[in-house]
Amino acid sequence: MSESIGKITVPGRKQAIQSYKARGGKLAAVFPIHYPRALLRSFDILPVEVWGPPGIDMGLGDAHLQAYTCSIVRAGLSFLLQGGLDPVDMIVVPHACDSLQGLGSILLDFVKPSMPVLPFVLPRDSGEPARRFLAAEISHVRDELCSLTGKNPTPEEFDAAISGEEDADGALAELLSRTAHLPVGDRELYRVVRSREYLPAEEFVKAARGLLALEIEEMRPGIPLVLSGIVPEPWEIFDAIATAGGRVAGDDLCGSGRRLYPRGRGDEPLTRLVDGLLSGPPDSTLGSAVDVRLAHLLDLVGRHEARGIVFYSMKFCEPEKFYLPQLQKGLEQEGVRSVVIESDLDRSMPDQALTRIEAFLESVT
Amino acid sequence: MNLLGSLNYHLKVNLLGKAYLRFDRMRLSWRMRRAGFWKEEQLAPPLFTSPRLKELISSHYLKGRYANGRGPVAWVTSGGPVEFLTALGYYVLYPENHGAVCGIRRSAEGLCIKAESHGFSRDICSYARTDFGAMLGGKTPVGRLPRPDLLLCCSNICQTVLLWYRVLAHHFKVPLILVETPFLYREALPHQVDYVKRQLDAGVELAEKVAGRSLAPSSLDRVVRRSKEASMLWAEIMSCGKQRPSPITAFDEFIHMAPIVEMRGEQFTVDYYRALLAELKGRIERGVGALASEKKRILWDNLPIWYRMKRLSRLLAGRGVAMVASTYTNAWGELAEMMDSSRPLESAARVYLHPILNRGTGHKLETIKNMAKEYQADGIILHSDRSCKPYSVGQMDQREKLAGEMGLPALLLEADHNDPRVYSDEQAENRLEAFMEVLGV
Questions:
Q1: I need a labelling partner for A49 at 20 to 30 A (CA). Which of A17, A288, B59, B344 fits?
Q2: ipTM score of complex
Q3: What residues in B contact A316, CB-CB < 8 Å?
Q4: Is the Cβ pair A66, B123 closer than 8 Å?
Q5: Contact partners, residue A331, CB within 8 Å, separation at least 6
Q6: pLDDT tens series, chain B, 441 aa
Q7: Number of CB pairs, chain A paired with chain B, less than 8 A apart
Q8: Which of B123, B180, B199 lies nearest to residue A321, judging by beta carbons?
Q9: Which residue among B124, B191, B361 places its CB closest to the CB of A318?
């Protein structure tokens, strides 16, 4: 189903999948977070990201994973075992954390789904050894895709796919930088932002440009905030912020703001792709230094004139939770207030969290 | 190094400290040989090398207490490639080992609470919380930890350690060497080995800069040789558990593994393990088991539950169940053959890429199956450790396979290695009782 937002229409996940399949393309279910989208697209494979989905019965996944495993992973596995990923031709599991590492491993060794499973490792450094490694890792995945699909994209096709993804990342960056002047609420805005998780790059660009074309001169009402976390699930966070009189101005979410890769530098397509992937914003799942993350958050606050930061923290998510005390302390020293709201995919937002957001917004006004 | 620091170190460590620890060892040894010392009926008396182990560990932390000012100090993850740091003269501290000491001495809970009071979530690893609690001024049973000049984080045990070491780097404002070991879903690929090797090269460079001296190849060669010898001795010690009755249990190994984790590459570690092996061989010759009566033999998977070791060992021993091996202690011996002092960094890249925790869940299952055969195990306890996801994820399938394909009774025991607040004695012991009934004891 597609959804109308203002005067633009954003295709839904199912619709995007069906139309891509219908024109002969293949699909890859991709778990979070960082991966070479352009590589997949150069093989005419559409990456469709699996961030749960929320609200799913996790019983089947819980036969393989302990309850203290992250709910994105448990829900994703349950979804697979319920047949939710049947339309896809392969599964890609980036190595974002211990839970996803475990998921990739049990898929290969025990669950053994009918479609191939490709693990992918993104280094947590950006120096020369990491660049060499990432280039070799992407080449290795490329070889696997060649044997799976029987295709061998030319350098020109690879280059074009990289350019397409860079355009989409650019459009997303523009969208996130101009949210203050878009005549939609956060829920609607994030329908477009999160369509980057499944739309082909060229269609996402259309959707983003369509929304940007609606830009108005006056500023959206609401106290500007930065939203930080893995994924804005449950979506009630947007309602809670709006109800309390706020709006999301800066984005430090894994699925969107932390994936604003700049255009890669280099003559060769592979070098460009590597450079782009390793030059993105700091991210907990990349093990970025605390100082670097802190500086980035302060920059977001400054650029968007935000009054505070809401950390939307997912239960059992170690990458996020390790950083929070030092980030909050560093922000406080710079006069920036923050609040941690704990959430989980399989829970609706408790009233207590709504009250805390209200209290937080009152304290920053 | 400064003169005052060095003098202080020699006085408090080399003169007073060592003399006291030697005296304490002799006192303990003497006590152990007195009639009536041992009152446990189901467990054999402790190994006679135990006082020497206590001396080694106490000496290690005593050296740490006065290390600042005497020489460079590095904090290192437990699976980290430590040899080049030892060869450069670093005093090396392992926060995980310190965490285990705190767990055994029941001070981990207080340190976790201290960390939580500073905002660290109870959902993060309890070793890390124990370490943060100590970092934030909490009381530790070892007195005082030295401030690091350098951090070395190797991701071959989990991804969590990088997050943990980022927190330490921010707190102490010191450089961090990251040795990232790509997880091996299958066999190692050349680009994965090459990546680790290049990071080691860069790590050596940074460690030299911080230490203010160059790495002498002869020193590295000597340390790697000792490391390999100690690891091989450790593997041989664990192999003693294949004997019936087993002269050692995994509970003993959890304690006696401390030197191989935190004092690899030292001659005294090699000497200590030679002595321990000799004692175990003596037990084998005399037919002495670690239990008074060994009826069944089991394996352990994952980290121990540090704060319940004694209680669990008594519970099992009371029913004649000998825990003869564990995948955890095995990890520090199984790669010894791969170490090569003639190619120290190249071989280190391979060695440190291959620990069980950096390999797939299927590989771990095969390791358990092989161990079950070699150690003639009648069952296995899989500790589902809330604080260690890389070790625990996969256990539910492993249990099914072990029970289904091998007919090996397998118990999944929910706990946490260092935080007693998520452990229930009653619940755990009920499950263990039921498990022992399945074993027929």
A1: A288
A2: 0.96
A3: 123
A4: no
A5: A294, A297, A298, A309, A337, A338
A6: 678 888 889 999 999 999 999 999 999 999 998 988 898 889 999 999 999 999 999 999 999 999 998 999 999 999 899 999 999 999 999 999 999 999 999 999 999 999 999 999 999 999 999 999 999 998 999 999 999 999 999 999 999 999 999 999 999 999 999 999 999 999 999 999 999 999 999 999 999 999 999 999 999 999 999 999 999 999 999 999 999 999 999 999 999 999 999 999 999 999 999 999 999 999 999 999 999 999 999 999 999 999 999 999 999 999 999 999 999 999 999 999 999 999 999 999 999 999 999 999 999 999 999 999 999 999 999 999 999 999 999 999 999 999 999 999 999 999 999 999 999 999 999 999 999 999 999
A7: 159
A8: B123
A9: B124
Number of domains making up chain B: 1
- Cβ neighbors of B437 (< 8 A, separation 6 or more) are none
This prediction's pTM: 0.96
Range of the domain at B245: 3-439
Binary contact (A110, B166; C-beta < 8 A): no
Q: Which residues of chain A make contact with B183, given a CB cutoff of 8 A?
A: 95, 101, 104-105, 119, 121
